[in-house]
Amino acid sequence: MERRQHRRVRAGLASWVRVNAHEVSGRAVDLSLGGAKIESALPVDPGKRVTVKLMIPGSAPIVIEQAEIRWVRDRTFGVRFLEIRQGQRDDLERLIDEYLDADESQNGSDRSYRGRDV
Questions:
Q1: Mind listing the pLDDT tens digit for each residue in 8-25?
Q2: Between the CA of residue 112 and those of 42, 88, 92, 103, 104, what are the distances in Å?
Q3: Which of 9, 49, 73, 87 could form a Cys-Cys staple with 99, CB 3.0–4.6 A?
């Protein structure tokens, strides 16, 4: 079994995935520096190169211009981030830290977990 390289958190962020000229709306239900699991009612195809936009409450969205759909299952799909600009990476890392800090302060547990590889 392959070990994850990045911490993963449960998120619930509004998101958009642009495939060619079409935008698919969804919700990023978990998130790491390496990718995200997104729920959406609209179909997508594995292997497609996409742009991912994560809507951050109270901040500018995080846009990852180079990503790939790795797997699709029912209304959920995994996206792997292929390349992230340093500023976007810093914003994403800060967001993940905020999720971890908020969860630890609420119930003393770590919100990170091991999920499907993206």
A1: 888 899 999 998 888 999
A2: 27, 20, 15, 9, 10
A3: 9
> Contact 42/75 with Cβ under 8 angstroms?
no
Angstrom distance (rounded) from CA 24 to CA 14? 11
In tens, the pLDDT along 36-46 reads: 999 998 889 99
Asked if residue 63 has pLDDT above 70, the reply is yes
Q: Is 5 left (phi over 0), alpha (psi -120 to 50) or beta?
A: alpha
DSSP conformational letter for 46: T
Domain boundaries, the chain: 9-104
Contact 29, 10 (CB under 8 A): yes
pLDDT > 50? residue 88: yes
pLDDT of residue 20: 84
The yes/no answer on whether domain 9-104 falls in CATH 2.40.10.220 is yes
